[in-house]
Amino acid sequence: MFMKSALASALATLCTLAQAANPLVTNIFTADPAALVDGNRVYLYVGHDEAAPEGKDYLMREWRVLSSCDMKNWTDMGSPLNVKTFKWAKADAWAADITKRNGKYYFYAPVEHDASKPGKAIGVAVSDKPAGPFVDARGSALVTNDMTKESDIPWDDIDPAVFVDKDGQAYLYWGNRVLKYARLKPNMIELDGPIHTVGIDNFTEAAYLHRHGKTYYLTYSRNFPEETAYATGPSATGPWTFRGKIMDMNKVVKTIHQAVIDFNGKSYIFYHNDKLPTGGEFRRSVAVEELHYKPDGSIAFIPQTAEGPAANPAPGCK
To answer: What percent of the chain has pLDDT over 70?
Structure first.
């Protein structure tokens, strides 16, 4: 259900999408969620799937951002950046991640590098506001395909996941088929030391790191078609113990791509599925569920639902 006019599209950017169910967005196709809690709001960053119903590949040129103060009503805040934000990039606004540090918002974006360094690369954009606009923080890629030699595929440097530990040390996880991580310098736009690889059960992509209590959780997409699985460890670098599957694969689309947050006393997991009419492999839709921890700290299995989580308004929510 795409809007037919520029005026309608502009109005949609300003309106509140009062969604009572999954998927969260129904007027366009969205994928690869990343989420940030800032104050009493959640900011949700998604890629925009633009492929035609008969499309044979991803067509993704921009990221979009939505926000909510109750996990039920979402406001479309437009596109804070796109591939052209990075002058050295030529295509593919793929799965990104974001964090806040020292009053600035850092957005880690995988794109297709130009011919000078062919293959997927990871750039960093920065903004003073969570909804952007974002600008290239470096003028060059943070990670390029020639920096990682563990596989011969040109798309192994994708799906960045940024995590700032309680001691202030920041880490960047990323990869396809081979999971990698590196420390980030305090400026958040340079690697601080070597790139490490991580052995983990049937890793495909979509690494995401979060902490609950004293335990670190590494969720990721496992196998292909993908299911969401996780491992736990005592630190941001492991060692990691595989814990199992927490969400089944989709019926049509082969990817799933999760992000996990805590908001207003509850935990949530975002992902994408194929539930919109004409949805599929290259026309995906972002959804959300509540995530529950068992008394032993393990994550309970999460079914995909049409209803999504109940409203959870933060103090002062409007």
So the answer is: 94
Q: Which helix (H) or strand (E) is 156 found in, with range?
A: none
Cα dihedral 42, 48, 49, 52 sign:
positive
Q: Quick one: pLDDT band at residue 21, thresholds 50, 70, 90?
A: confident
Q: For the chain, give the percent of residues with pLDDT over 90.
A: 93
Task: Name the strand (E) or helix (H) holding 239.
Answer: none
Contact between 85 and 96 under an 8 Å Cβ cutoff? The reply is no
- Where is 12: in which H helix or E strand? helix 6-14
Cis preceding-peptide flag for 23 (omega within 30 of 0): yes
3 state SS of 199: coil
pLDDT at 14 over 60: no
Among 38, 41, 123, 26, smallest CA distance to 82 is for: 123
State the pairing for strand pair 41-49/29-38: antiparallel
- Tell me the backbone φ, ψ of residue 135, rounded to 5 degrees: -125, 155
Smallest CA-to-CA distance from 95 within 219, 206, 253 is with 206
Contact 299, 246 (CB under 8 A): yes
Q: pLDDT tens-digit profile of 74-111? A: 999 999 999 999 999 999 999 999 999 999 999 999 99
The rounded distance, in Å, linking the Cα atoms of 187 and 291 is 32
**Host H or E run for residue 75:** strand 73-76
Q: How many Cβ atoms sit within 10 Å of the Cβ of residue 187?
A: 14
Which pLDDT value is given to residue 20? Answer: 53
Q: How far apart are the C-alpha atoms of 17 and 40, rounded to whole Å?
A: 18
